[in-house]
Amino acid sequence: MSETRESGDYRETQEIELKLLLLQSPDHSVFWRIPHLRQGLQSKPVTDMLVSTYYDTPDHDLLQKGYTYRVRREATGWMATVKGMGTVEGGLHRREEWNSPLPEGQPDLTLLEDEKIRSVLMKLTDDQPLVPLMTTRFQRTQALWQHSSGTRIELALDEGVIETETKKMPINELELELKEGSSLVLLELGEHISKYMAVAPGDDSKFHRGLQMLELVPGSQSKEARYQKKALLTKEQAKTSTLAQAVPRVLKEGFADVISSFQNLHHEPEMPEHLHQLRVSLRRLRSLISFLRPALNKTQAEALQTSLQRWSNQWSPLREIDVLAVHFQEFIHAFESADEPKAAPLMQTLVDQQVALARRPLYDSLGKGEMTTRLLACWRQTKELSVDDDMGDRLLADFGEKRLRRWVKRFETKGRCTGLEDIQQLHRLRIQGKKIRYVMESLSPALPDIPRKTVKTMKKLQTLMGDLHDVHCEMKHMKRWVSDHPADVELMRQAGRYEGWQQQRETAFNHQLARFWKKTSTRL
């Protein structure tokens, strides 16, 4: 809920808004007639031209401390706005905002109404001049919308440009700002709109995009840093929090990983690792919900699990083909020589064609905004998921310890009685071990240590069974592709060499698994 404190013309707000990037130029007449949206409109859409200039010191002192200072011409006159950087979760922006009237339209920190923020900014700037960083010029069409529950949301369609001294970037986005009520309704409305318009959650404000143009933001993270997993609770929170306190925080942080992975995929859809990490984040969240399930509303938990599983499974075939493409390069390198620099050129062409064909639905889903609808729906369901009343007062640490020990005991018991010939049971055991590891990564401060040999078993089993699974999937896909060209003798020859190489890998993995399981299963 947005909280507002007023004092004369001054207003301080905890701003909560959902930013959706428009993937296609909007048809305004269609947008404002979207069902459910049209029914809740409380005012006729009004269009204004907004020109805003952002200022800072020559040394960017405000930026370095996380503040922005903006001067904008509004219908009632000039307004100065100070914003904190706040937080962003896949388009849902939360940040402090201070507004003050500005008689002459020139930057002047001494005219800020709030004594505290004025003092902070004056100290930061230390009498240095404020110079323009960038200007935004856009046409905004906005209206007020109200839900039957009383939640009020301001909708704003923005079209225009961000300008620096040497560069320009287009603005084409929709902002939904929560004026009063529940942020859950904000997500519901965004989800509904996404079914009628191609949108994507916007993780960057106009100001931040301008900073990127000015090269005043850090470069992209390394893959290791980008996907580094951390516990979702601090040690203090883990020790003292009840389930009613901890579960909403854990689910929020868990879904933040999903959103982050989705953003990476949307920015670079051609990178297979991003899709893989999105599916990992979905499985991690599913494992967390499964672990917490005795404390959760059963109906809500089952519905969310189904949604997450369907989303992840939708892209399983593409992930298999992405992995095939990586391993195919290993095959090529294994057979390349001075006499045969290209070991399987016909197969390489075939693989490239099939990878492009398999990735096309992903690009379409992102470009049409279909995946955004899934994201917002799962986000809403995660936010709705509640703790049962009779479990809320229980400490997370007590619940987690008993639950984890039960899971680990089940894993060890099944491991001792599972033979190497029972591939299906080994696969289920692998999945159970993966779930335990995901939960341990997410809730480690609240969980007891488990035997190192058990953790080692989980990791090794996951690796070996995963390798065997990859071989089987890759052979299946390749046989299907090659069978479409039965008359191509050279392709068949290359495919035979590839099949032999895969069979060697399968034999090696089976030997490793046999040695490992013979040594390990009796020690669990």
Structural key phrases:
single chain, 524 residues, Hypothetical Protein Pfu-838710-001, CHAD domain, 2 domains, disordered N terminus
Count the beta strands: 11
Low-confidence sequence ranges: 1-12
Supply the number of helical segments.
18
Tell me the fraction of residues in β-strands, as a range.
Answer: 15-25%
CATH third-level topology of the largest domain: CHAD domain
Encode the helix/strand succession as letters: EEHHEHEEEEHEEEHEHHHHHHHHHHHHH
So what's the CATH class of the largest domain? Mainly Alpha
How far is the N terminus from the C terminus?
A: 51 Å
Number of domains: 2
> Approximately how much helix is present in the residues?
40-55%
Radius of gyration: 27 Å
Shape call: globular
Structure class: alpha+beta
The largest pleated sheet is described as:
8 strands, antiparallel, barrel
Quick one: CATH superfamily of the largest domain?
CHAD domain
Supply the CATH architecture of the largest domain.
Alpha solenoid
Overall mean pLDDT: 90
Order of strands across the biggest sheet?
Answer: 2-7-5-4-3-8-9-10
Organism: Anoxynatronum buryatiense
GO molecular function, one term: metal ion binding
Domain CYTH: 13-214
InterPro entries: CHAD_dom, CHAD_dom_sf, CYTH-like_dom_sf, CYTH_domain, YgiF
Written overview of the protein:
- Residues 13-214 form the CYTH domain.
- This is Adenylate cyclase.
- It holds the Pfam family CHAD.
- Residues 240-522 form the CHAD domain.
- InterPro entries: CHAD_dom (IPR007899), CHAD_dom_sf (IPR038186), CYTH-like_dom_sf (IPR033469), CYTH_domain (IPR023577), YgiF (IPR039013).
- The chain has 524 residues and is of the alpha+beta class.
- The chain folds into two domains: 4-213, Beta Barrel (Hypothetical Protein Pfu-838710-001), CATH 2.40.320; 232-523, Alpha solenoid (CHAD domain).
- It has 18 helices and eleven strands.
- The protein has helices spanning 28-31, 37-40, 61-64, 115-125, 183-194, 206-213, 223-226, 235-240, 243-267, 272-292, 298-314, 316-335, 345-367, 370-384, 396-416, 423-443, 452-482, 489-520; strands at 4-7, 10-22, 46-56, 67-74, 77-84, 87-89, 92-101, 131-146, 152-163, 168-180, 199-201.
- It has an eight-stranded antiparallel beta barrel with strand order 2-7-5-4-3-8-9-10.
- It is globular, with a radius of gyration of 27 Å.
- Residues 1-12 have low confidence and may be disordered.
